[in-house]
Queue: 3 jobs
Job 1
Amino acid sequence: MLNLLILLAERFSMIGLLAFILSKANFFKKVISNNVSYKDLSILIAIFSLIGIIGTYAGIPINGAIANSRVVGPMIAGLLGGPFIGLIVGFIAGFHRFLIGGFTALACGISTTAEGLIGGIIKKYYKNTVDWKVAFLAGIIGETLQMILILAISRPFASALSLVKVIGVPMILVNSTGIAVFMLIIKSVFDEIDTIQSKQAKIILDITSKTIPYIRNGLNIETAKIVSEIIYEAIDADAVVITDMKTILASVGLDGADEKWHIFKKSEVNAFRFKKVYVENSKKGLCLLSSVTAPLYCYDELVGTLKIFRKNKFVNSTDIEVAKGLSNLISNQLEIADAENQKRIADEMKFNALQAQINPHFLFNALNTVISFIQYNPDGASKLLITLSEYLRNNLRHAGKWITVGKEIENIDAYLYIEKARFGEKINVIKDIDSDILNMYIPALLIQPIVENAVKHGILPKDNGGTIIIRAKNNKDFIRFSVEDDGEGMDNQMRLKILNGESENNAGIGLHNVYERVKSIYKSAFFKIDSKKGYGTKVSFDFPKFYEERKEEVFGGLKVSNSR
C-alpha cells in the first residue's frame, strides 16, 4: 500500500506541473475571475477532459484495474466551472475509462461522472474560488464514492473487495491532496489577479484625482502636457504620448526620432473602431520599443489617442489595463467637459439674451416721462435721459459678467431714479451699505431683480406706495444682502412656489433666478424669503466674498430672467 501511495504521488507530480503551467494561461485567469466566454469554456472542458484521460493512462495497473488520478480533472473542472462543466468533463473522462474495459470499467465510468458533478454542485455555493480545505474534503467524498461503486457494481465481488483494500486509501489520500494542491495553485493565481487589479485601481484612482481638473478643460496642448506628465510619473513608463487626430499634443520621454509613432496605422484604426487598445512590439535598431495605444473618444467620435511606451521590454498586462482605464476616464471627462461647455455657452447666451431684453412698457414709460419733463423741467429731462442711457448701457454691457457691489448699487440707483421720476414720492428708498464691501465682486444683476420686484409687485400696487430698504452688510466670510419692502406681500404658498421654481409670473421667475444663481456658486448659502400678505416682503441671502473679478458667470441650469 505504501509503495502504491508513493507511485501515485510521483505520477501526480506531472499533473501538478501541468496545473502550474495552466495557471499562467490568460483564458484560465478569465475563468477564475468569472470573465469567461463560450470559447474559454470549451477550452476548459477540453483541457480538463485531457487531464482526466492522462490521469487514467498515468495510472498503475493492479489486479485487472487501474489505480489512477483520473478524478482530478473532472473534480477541478466542476469546482471551477460549476455543475454543467463538471458533468461534461466527468462524462468524457469516465466514458474513456469505460471504453478501456476491465471488471471496474462501469463503476469507474459512473463514479468519474458523479465526481465531476459533485465538484460543480460545491462550486454553486461559492462565489469565489473554492477553499482548498473544501476541495480536499470533496476529493475524499468523491473517491470514497468511487470505492463504494466498485464494491456495489464490479463483479466478482471478491476481486472488487481485494482491489479496494489495496487502492482505496492511497487513491483517496493522493487524489484528495492533489485536488487541494491544484486549488491552492489556482488560489495563488486568484490572489495575483487581485493584486494586479488593486494596483491598477490605485494607479487609475491616483491619476484620476490629479488629472480631472485639467481634463475638464478639454483636450488641447496645455492639458495634454500636464496629463501626460502625470501619467508618466504614476506608471513609471518610458514614454507617454497624447495625440489628437493629426499631431502629437504632448509627449514625455520620447526623443525627436521617435515621434513618427503618432502616425495611425490601418491595424490601429481597425482596433479603435471597436474601442479596443492596440499593442505593438517593434524592433528599432538593437532595441525593442513596445507600445499600447488607447483611443480617446468624445460622444463616440475618435478625437485622439493615449500611447504608453516601453523600451527593451514588452508592455505588460498592467500597462494594458491602465491604458484601458485611462482611455475610458479621459473619454468620459472629455464628454463631460464638452457637455458643460455647451451648457455654459447655451446658458450664457440665454442669460445675455434675456438680460438684454428691455421691457417695452418700461422703456415706453421712461421715454414718456422724459417727454413730460422736457415741457416743464428741461434740466431734469436731460438728467433723466442720461440716467436712462447709462442704465440701458450697463444692462447690456455687464450681462453675464461680474461687477463690484458698488457698480451694482449704481445700477440700482439709476433704475430707482427713473422709477421715482415717474411715481414721485410713492417710492421711498433707504440704503444701508457697508463701505468696505463696495469693491468686492458679485455677478451682475444679482440684487437689482429683487429691487425691481419690490417696486413693481410690492410698492406700486399700493395706493400710498411704500418704502424699500436695501442693505449690504459685511458678515465675516460673507456679504449679507437684503431687500425689504412694506408693500403687498405674498402668502406662504406663493413663497414656496418661488423657491421651488414653480411660479409662472415675473416676480417668481426673477426671485428664483437670484436664488439659483446664489446656490450655483455656494450651495449651502443662506437664502430666505420672509413675506406676509398685506405687510410686505423681505428677501435676504449670503454671498461669498470675491476680491477679484471672475472670468465667467457660474450657471446651474437655471431659468434666467429679470422682473421687468
Job 2
Amino acid sequence: MCYKAFLFIFFKRFLRILRMKYPNTEIKNITDTYFGFEVEDPYRWLEDDMSTETAAWVEAQNTVTFSYLNKIPFRKNIKNRLEKLWNYEKISAPFKEGNYTYFYKNNGLQNQSVIYRTDSNGNEELFLDPNTFSKDGTVSLGDLSFSKDGSILAYSISEGGSDWRKIVILNTETKTIVEDTIIDVKFSQISWYKNEGFFYSSYDKPNGSELSAKTDQHKVYYHKLGTPQQQDQLIYGGSPNQKHRYIYAGVTQDDKYLIIAPKISTTGNKLFIKDLTKPNSDFITILNHTDSNTNIIDNKDNTLYLVTNLNAPNKRLVKVNTSNPTPEFWEDVIPETKNVLSVATAGKYFIAEYMVDAISNVKQYNYNGELIREITLPGVGSAAGFGCKKDEIIDYFVFTNYNTPSNIYKLNLDTGATELYWKPSIEFNSNAYESKQVFYTSKDGTKVPMIITHKKGLELNGKNPTILYGYGGFNISLNPAFSIAMAVWMEQGGIYAVPNLRGGGEYGKAWHDAGTKMQKQNVFDDFIAAAEYLIANQYTSSEYLALRGGSNGGLLVGAVITQRPDLAKVALPAVGVLDMLRYHTFTAGAGWAYDYGTAEDSEKMYKYLKAYSPIHNVKQTAYPATLITTADHDDRVVPAHSFKFAAELQNKQQGENPILIRIETNAGHGAGTPVSKTIEQYADIFGFTLYNMGLSVSE
C-alpha cells in the first residue's frame, strides 16, 4: 500500500458534501445563570442518556456517519492492513502467585488477552479466558488480585466498557467460582488481607442513570470470604467528615498496615494507616491535607517508605517511623533531582525511573538509598513494568518507543545483567523508521519537547499526512510507546508527532500546574505551536495535518479548532471533555476540578472556562473535517459532551468539510475495548482523515 493523489475531481466531492444532510437536532433552550450572566444550552436534552429521543438521535447520527464512511473506497484496505499487522502473538511479563507463574497472551486478533499459567514443572495451561465472558468481547477483564498464598483470585470485570465493575472470586486450583459476585464497584483496587478477605472501594448507586449521574462519596469496604456482600464492613468514607470523591485502600506486603488514601480531586491525597495487628486500632494520620501526591510503596516493620512530591515537585523517596509519621519526621532515601522520579520495589531493592525529557533513565538503589548501579536499557525510549516480590531476584521490564514494539527484558537484581526475554514476531521493520526529538517555542517563550516519527528518508515537502497527537493534563506523561495503529499510519508515509504539552507530568508538578485552571490556555498554545513548528519546517502543511486527542486530549482538539479553525484539515476529538461549564455535574467529573476549576468557583473562573469551552465557542465559520468519536457506555466522560459539540458544529459549519460523530455502542471510555472494535475504529479514523486530505491507500 502507498499514498497516492486522489483521482476524484474536487468539484464532484464538493457537490457530494453539499448534498450531505445531517440529522435534525432540535433546539430546546435552557438558560443557566452564572454570577448574573445568562448562558443558553440549546441541546441540554441530549444529556439524558435514558431517553428515547437521545437514542433516536444517536441512531440517526450513526446512520449518516457510516453512510459517509462506507463510501470511502480504500477504507477496507486500511482495515485489512490493520488486521494483518495486528495479528501477531503478544504476551506479558510473567508473575508468580502461589504455586504458579502466570502471564497474559493474545494470539493476535483475540478481542481480549487470555491468562495462562505454568506449574513448577513448566507445564502450561489456559487459566482464564475473558473472551468467554461475552460473545462480542464487550465484557472485559479488569484487575487481578490473588490472595497471599495464591489459592484464591478476585478479578474485576467491566460490561460494555463501563467504569462500574463486578468482582468475581475464583478458586485457583479448581478454577471454579466460589461465592457470589460482588457488584456495584467503581474506581477500586482489590487488596487482600492474608487469605481471609479483601478491601475494595465504591459509591452508593446514584439516582437516575448510573452512566451519567453524579458520584462523589467513595467508600472503602472489607469483604470477608464466605460472607455475603450485604455484610461487608464499611471501613472508611461513610461519615460526612470522611467524604471524598476517591478513596484508595491497600494492604502492605507483610499484612501489617492498611493504607487509606482519600482524594478530593485527581491530584493530591490525604494519607492514613491502620495497624491490622491490633483489631480495634484507630487510623494514624500521616497527611491530613491534599497538597501533595504521596504514596506508601513499602514498609519494613514500623518503617514506611513513601514517594512524595511534598516540597519536592519532581518527587523523592522518604522513610519514616510509624510512631511519628508526619512530614517533619521524614528522611530522604532518594532525594529529589531535576528529573521526575517514579519508584518501584523489586526484591530487596528500589528501582528508580527518571524521566529525562520524557525518556527513561533507570537506576537501582538499596533500602539505605545507596546507588547500586544504573540499569542499561536497550535504546532510547520508555522502560516500564518494574516490580517483583521481596523473595525474588529476577525482575522483568518492558522497553518500547514509537518505532519499536514492546520487548520484555529480564533483569537480574543481584548482578544488574539484562537479557531479552521475549521479542514479538511482527511484520514491521523498525529499522526503516526514525524518531527525532525537537524542542520548539510556545507562545510565551516556553520550550516544549516533541518527538516526530516517520519513515527514514521522508521528503520534507509540506505534503506529508501528519497526525499531531496531544493530551496535556492531569499530570499524565506521554512517553514513547509503540502503537500498532500508528505503525500502519507511518507505514504508508504518514508522520506521527507527539508533543509533551504543559499540564502533563514530564517535568514534574510545576509543568503540570502550568497547564491547569487559569493557565489552561498554555496547553492549547503549546499544541498550536507544535502544529506551526511542523508546518514551518515542511513536515506538513495545514492541508495535510490532523489533530487528535482523547478525553482531556479531546478537550484539547475541541478548544484548538474553535480558536484556530484554519490550523488543520482534519480534527479527531475522542471522548472529549467539551462542556466546561457542566463537566463537573456528571459522574465523577467534579474530581477534575484541580485541573480545570469549575464555573461555580468564581466569576473569574467562570469567564475563563467559558472563553475556551469548545461547546460555547462554536461560531458560524469554516471548520476542519471533524470526526468526533465517543461511546454510549462512557461513564467517565459522558457522551453528552460529544453529542452537544457535534450538534453545535453541524449547525454552524460554513465550509465544505463534513462534521460527523461516530458513536460506538456497548463500549466505554476506552479500556477493555475489543480488538475487533479497535481495528474498525482506526480504519474509520484513518480513512476519514486521508479521504479529506485528498489522499488514498491502495491494496
Job 3
Amino acid sequence: MDINNRLSRCESWYRMLDTFMQENTPSIDEVMTKICEKIKQFIPVQYVGIYYYDAWKNGYSLKTDDPVVGKMTVEILPASIVAKDNPREAGKELFVSPSSLQTMLIPLRDKEKKVGFLFTAADFFSEWCRQECNTIAEEISGQLRVLSNYIHTAKTNYNHQILYQVTSSFHASINTKEVLEEVITTLKDVYPGFDYYLYLSQEFPGADDLPTKELIYNDNVTNRVSVHAFLTGDVQYEQLADNCESNLYIPLRGKQGVYGVLQICASTVTTFPAEDVEFISLLANEAGNAMENARLYQQSKQLIEDLQLINETSHTLNSNLRLIETTTFMNRQIKDKFGAEEIGFILFKEDSQEEYEVLDGSTDYFLSRKAKPFLTNTLELLKKQHDAVFIGDFSIKYPEIRLPYHSVMAIPMVQSKQIKGAIFVLHPDAYYFSFEAFKLIQSLVHHSTLAFVNSMLREQLEHLVITDYLTSLYSRKYLDERLQEHLSEDEQGAFLLIDIDDFKKFNDTYGHELGDELIIQVATIIKGHIGAEDFAARWGGEELAVYLPNASIEDGMETAHQLVKQVEAFTEPTVTISVGVSYWNKGQDQHSGNVFDRADEALYQAKELGKNCVVKAKCIGEPK
C-alpha cells in the first residue's frame, strides 16, 4: 500500500472539508459529490457513488457526481441491508437494468453504526483496487463522521435560533391568528417540501387564509388520528399505504391543555426523524403556550366586558324603571350581546286562573298562540328542575313540540328561592349559543331579577293606589286627574255617572256582603263594554263613573244605553241603573268640576224620571 498516496488523499479530503465548513450550513450532498470526484482520481473505476443514510426515507440514498450512475442504479437501499454482514459486494441487483460491470458496496461506519456504503463499478477489480476501495471507505468514514458532527451541531444551533426567534415573536403577540401564521411560515422555511394543516376546535376559528380544518371529535369522525393526538396530547404517525404518504400529527400543547393539532403531510418521505420530530414538537408546544396565553388574555378581556355589562345592566335596571322600560332595556341588551332572534319575558301569576303572562317587551313569537305549547312545556321543566334550561337543538330533544327555533335558553328569575318568572332566548340555528354565553346570561338574569321584581311590585303598588279595592276600577281621585289631562289635550269627551237603583233597599234586604257582590257584577259589566282607551272608576258607594276620551255626546249616550240594558239583563239578583251623561268640547270654557256637576244633575233627573234610564246633561249656556 502506498503510504504517500494515502497521506495525499487524506490531505485532499481535509482541505475539501475545511472549504465546506467555512460555510454556515454545508450540504452533505455537495460534500459527497466532491468526494466521488476525488475517488475517481485515485482508483481506476468507471462509476462512483455513496449511499448515505437518509432518516426521512429510512434507507440509504445515492449521492454521486455522475448522473449516469443515478440512472443505472437503484436510488434507495432499504435500511434492512444494515443487518447483513456481507452486503451485495458483487450484486448485480444494484443495477436497474442488466449490466456486465462488476460492483463493490463497502460499508461506511461511525463506530459500529453503518452510516452508508461506498459504491464503485468497473469492468474488472484487481486485488490492489479492491484494497484501495476498502482503504478509501475507511478514510471517508472518518471524514463523514467529522462532517456529520459538524452538520448536526450547526443544525441544532440553527433550530435553537429559530425557536428563540419564534418564541420571542409568540410572546410579543396575543393574537391567535398571528401565532398560527408564524408556525406555518417557519415550518415551510425549514421543511419546504411538506404540506401543513391545523386542526382547531371551535374555540379557535381559523382565518380564511390559513390551512385550517375543524377539529371534530364524535362517533362519526373520519380522521381519528388527529383526534387521538388532540385527546392524548401525544405525537401520532400515520402511514397511507395507498399513496405512499406519511402524516405526522403534533398536538399544540399549553400548560393547561391541548388547543389544536398540527398535521404535516409528506408524500416523499417514509418516516420522520426523531430529531426533527423533537424540533417540530418544541415549536408546536411554544405555539400551544402562545395560544393559551392569547386565550387567557381574551378570556380575561371577555370577563371584564361581561362584568361591565352586568354592572351597567344592574345600575340601569335599579334606577326605578317601569316594567315596560325594564323589559325593553333587557331586550336590547340580550339582542346586542347574544344575537338572539326571539326574547320572551314571562311572569308567573299567583292570583289568577292563568298560569303566566307574557310581558310587554317580549318579541312577536311569544305574543302569538304558536308559542303556548313550547312555553307550557318549558315552564313546567323550569319548575321541576328549578334550574335554567340550555338546549342546543330543541327539535332533537323534543321532536313532538313544533318550534321554529333550535337553540333555546330559558333562565328562571328566582327571588327568595321562588321562581317569579323566566327569560327566554331563542335562535333558529342549532348550537348557536356557546356555553360561555349561557353562563353569562344566567349571571345577567340573576343580577337583574331583583330589579324586575321591584318594578313589578312598584307597579302593583301603584295599581293599588289608583284602583278601588272592591271593584278593581280606578279610584275617583285617579279619574279626576286623568280627566284634567284630557281636558287640556283632547278635542272633546263624554262622562257617564252611574248609580245602582234602589241600592239601599237591596242592602237592607240581602245584606252588605251581597250588596258588595252586586257592585262587583255591575263593575265587571262596565269593564266589558268600554274601549281600551276608556276608563271607569268607582265614584263612591254604589255610584260608578265612565269617561270616554274624544267621544261625542252620541257615543256617550249609546254607551250609556248599552250599559243600562246589560246590567238589567245580566245581574243576579236583577238590578237596574240610572245614568247621567255630560259632554264637553274644546270651544267651551270647561273644567272637570263642571263636567261632573252636569252629569250629576242629569243622573238626578234620571232618578226623577223613574230610574233605569239615561238622561243627557244640558250643555253650557243651554237654558234649564
